[in-house]
């Protein structure tokens, strides 16, 4: 048996320990009460989850739309009539039109409308639900593609520009913002006075007419455009929507929708850069008809300059155009203008040749060369800068270098009394030189001054009446 003294000792120790434990518990108790006042109860957590829609819908939209209960790999109403898919388009901009690549780039909003009863859900308020791109991969959507497209992409800044709206009765709106570069089969036979018809074609890739029917949702009003759409070289005359069918030998008939737009080119840019310089070069080539036939360097250099300038204009226009195998309207104008410039050079070649033949015949008859060695008043001015009177000048074939210097000094630096009769003669120089040039010019130059402008003006009248 345990002695009474030990029993009393252990009892005292136990009482002491229990009192310390109770004291410690009283100290911690207020802290526990403060913490319990912050932490919500289970009833409060349940109530907060019901009020916070961001916690409720992500957990239940699959059940609400019955996504897990159906196979969305097949179209709505599979095995029955084709599902109708309405389309409408809001054109945001036409970014560029390239003649070299024969394509155009367009940015627009493409909206699809169809009904999928598998997505119907009960709703007391009859309000639709809107989702982003994350739901697209879980349901069925039309597989629309763009015929003759080179490249296209869905805008993804800041996220993918995709919107999906589901109504309680199962009607679905699927909207996406797309930029597409597609072919435009252009005809440049009237360039730059042309009008181009381009179209963007929409079609289902997998579902033919037995499974899917594409149509414009609101008829002709299904195609809307921004009022501020403008292009640098084109004026948009018309935007229209149409529909049709496309046949493929392996898969059958498909519904196809067309976005048609008519572009008329602005002509003012090409008038300033192409037509007006060409007209100036042709008119400049006519100046050679008024230059004396013996001024060989002047007339030859003028003809070569105009020919080279026309070649530069032609090469500049060809560099900005596709290599087509037919003749364009601008080619007709530039090549005809180049022909006029080239004919002006040939005209002087003919004049020079006939003049040389005439002088040779005259030399055989008279034994004298009438030409540069028989200098008249107008030609003498080109040599020494002073007027020569045919009655007082000596024979030009016999003067020497020393006598020429003396003559220049005597004529050009004489006193006022000796120059006075010479000034009188210079007053009538203008009329005499004009008469001399008219008499000495070949008959071909005389006719060319009238014939070339008349023919070129007639060509312009026919050209602009045909192409404008």
From TrEMBL:
| Gene Ontology CC | chloride channel complex; postsynaptic membrane
Key words of the record: Cell membrane, Chloride, Chloride channel, Ion channel, Ion transport, Membrane, Receptor, Signal, Transmembrane, Transmembrane helix, Transport
Please verify whether the record's keywords include Membrane.
Answer: yes
Give all residue intervals belonging to the Neurotransmitter-gated ion-channel ligand-binding domain. Answer: 67-266
Signal sequence range: 1-24
In terms of Pfam families, this protein maps to:
Neur_chan_LBD, Neur_chan_memb
Q: Which family does it belong to?
A: Belongs to the ligand-gated ion channel (TC 1.A.9) family.
Kindly provide the name given to this protein in its UniProt entry.
Gamma-aminobutyric acid receptor subunit rho-3
The record lists the organism as Balaenoptera acutorostrata
Q: Lineage, please?
A: Eukaryota, Metazoa, Chordata, Craniata, Vertebrata
């Amino acid at each position: 048996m345990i002695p009474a003294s030990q029993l009393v000792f252990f009892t005292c120790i136990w009482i002491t320990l229990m009192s310390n434990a109770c004291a410690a518990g009283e100290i911690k108790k207020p802290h526990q009460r403060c913490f319990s006042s912050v932490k919500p109860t289970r009833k409060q957590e349940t109530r907060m989850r019901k009020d916070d829609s961001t916690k409720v819908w992500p957990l239940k939209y699959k059940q609400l739309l019955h996504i897990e209960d159906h196979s969305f790999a097949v179209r709505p109403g599979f095995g029955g009539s084709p599902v109708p898919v309405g389309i409408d388009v809001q054109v945001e901009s036409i970014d560029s039109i390239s003649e070299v690549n024969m394509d155009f780039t367009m940015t627009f909003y493409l909206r699809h409308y169809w009904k999928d009863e598998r997505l119907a859900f009960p709703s007391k308020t009859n309000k639709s639900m809107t989702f982003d791109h994350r739901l697209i991969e879980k349901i069925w959507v039309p597989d629309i593609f763009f015929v003759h497209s080179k490249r296209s992409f869905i805008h993804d800044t800041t996220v993918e520009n995709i919107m999906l709206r589901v109504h309680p009765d199962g009607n679905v709106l699927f909207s996406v913002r797309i930029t597409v570069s597609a072919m435009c089969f252009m005809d440049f036979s009237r360039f730059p006075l042309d009008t181009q018809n381009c179209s963007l074609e929409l079609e289902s890739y997998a579902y033919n007419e037995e499974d899917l029917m594409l149509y414009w949702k609101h008829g002709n009003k299904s195609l809307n455009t921004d009022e501020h759409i403008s292009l640098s070289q084109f004026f948009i005359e018309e935007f229209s929507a149409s529909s049709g069918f496309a046949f493929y030998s392996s898969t059958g008939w498909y519904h196809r929708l067309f976005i048609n737009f008519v572009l008329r080119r602005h002509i003012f840019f090409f008038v300033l850069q192409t037509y007006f310089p060409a007209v100036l070069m042709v008119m400049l080539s006519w100046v050679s008809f008024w230059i004396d036939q013996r001024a060989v360097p002047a007339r030859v250099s003028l003809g070569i300059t105009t020919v080279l300038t026309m070649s530069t204009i032609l090469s500049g226009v060809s560099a900005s155009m596709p290599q087509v195998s037919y003749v364009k309207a601008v080619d007709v104008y530039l090549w005809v203008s180049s022909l006029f410039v080239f004919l002006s050079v040939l005209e002087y070649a003919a004049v020079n040749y006939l003049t040389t033949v005439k002088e040779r015949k005259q030399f055989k008859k008279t034994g004298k060369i009438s030409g540069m060695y028989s200098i008249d008043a107008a030609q003498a001015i080109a040599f020494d800068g002073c007027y020569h009177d045919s009655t007082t000048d000596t024979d030009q074939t016999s003067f020497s270098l020393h006598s020429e210097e003396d003559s220049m000094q005597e004529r050009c630096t004489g006193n006022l009394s000796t120059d006075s009769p010479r000034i009188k003669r210079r007053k009538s120089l203008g009329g005499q030189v004009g008469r001399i040039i008219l008499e000495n010019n070949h008959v071909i130059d005389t006719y060319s001054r009238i014939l070339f402008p008349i023919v070129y003006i007639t060509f312009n009248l026919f050209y602009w009446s045909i192409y404008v």
